[in-house]
Amino acid sequence: MFTGIVEEIGTVVALEPGAPTPDGEGDARLRVRGPLAVSDAGLGDSIAVSGVCLTVTDLPGDGTFAVDVMPESLRRTALGDLAPGDSVNLERALAVGGRYGGHVVQGHVDGVGVVRSRRPGPRWDDVEIGLDPALARYVAEKGSITVSGVSLTVTHVSDDAFGVSLIPTTLAATTLGALAPGARVNLEVDVLAKYTERLLTAAGALPATGAAR
């Protein structure tokens, strides 16, 4: 589990596609440089890479780590857009007894959003992000959402978009500071909203939609 509080901006070293399956899909191996993330990491540990929970498969001891990215993750996230030299947000899994500064983040990305606009303020930026209407119903004004691994508070929401305000710390300490209109970002909605819908649907209080997971 994660909190959406980015610990370090890492750098992509390589993204190597694997052999495709008969249906044309394949996996990939991602290598990232992140000295803080690997400082106490072990094989099999979880690290969130721009909001995607991935398992460490290689630690060569040079400040980098490798992870295998499955076809499901490539379909649902923007990890496939990465290239060597790109920046990614890194967060190690929450340690038992650690300070809980964000919100419940699983690292299970629900979909990809697209930055629609960015409006600079005196010390912050207001950003609007478009998303699939099927996900929009899980987003609430003043609720929490994870954008590329960053826990943010929703400032407004519509049927296919939502807004967030990026404070100076977020602009300086995460990749969101470099977002431009058209950029694709990984989105994870509040897991409590999804489970609430699932439970109410199973109890017959809501019509089945097929969208809750």
Strand content: 35-45%
Structural class, from helix and strand content?
alpha+beta
Question: Helicity range of the residues?
Answer: 10-25%
- Mean pLDDT rating: 91
Task: Give me the strand/helix succession.
Answer: EEHEEEHEEEHEEEHEH
CATH-scheme architecture of the largest domain: Beta Barrel
Q: Describe the global form.
A: globular
Q: Please identify the top-level CATH class of the largest domain.
A: Mainly Beta
CATH topology of the largest domain: Elongation Factor Tu (Ef-tu), domain 3
Which value, in Å, is the CA radius of gyration? 17 Å
Largest sheet: 6 strands, antiparallel, barrel
* Poorly predicted runs of 5 or more residues: none
The total domain count is 2
Total of helices? 5
Question: What separation lies between the terminal Cα atoms?
Answer: 18 Å
- By DSSP, the count of extended strands is 12
Biggest sheet strand line-up = 1-2-5-4-3-6
Explain this structure to me?
It is a single chain. Helix content is 15%, strand content 37%. The chain is an alpha+beta fold and 213 residues long. The chain folds into two domains: 8-92, Elongation Factor Tu (Ef-tu), domain 3 (Beta Barrel), CATH 2.40.30; 111-198, Elongation Factor Tu (Ef-tu), domain 3 (Beta Barrel). A six-stranded antiparallel β-barrel has the order 1-2-5-4-3-6. The chain has a six-stranded antiparallel β-barrel with strand order 7-8-11-10-9-12. A hairpin with a 5-residue loop joins strand 4 (52-58) and strand 5 (64-69). The longest helix has 12 residues, at 191-202. It is globular, with a radius of gyration of 17 Å. The mean pLDDT is 91.
